[in-house]
Amino acid sequence: MRQACAGGLDLVDLLVGFEKAYIVDALAGGGRAGEIYRLTPESLPLPERLGATHGRQLGLPMPREIVIYAVEINQGYDFGEELSPPVKEAAEEIVRQLLEELTRELSA
Question: What is the 3-state secondary structure (H, E, C) of 30-78?
Answer without folding.
Answer: CCCCCCEEEECHHHCCHHHHHHHCHHHHCCCCCCCEEEEEEEECCCCCC
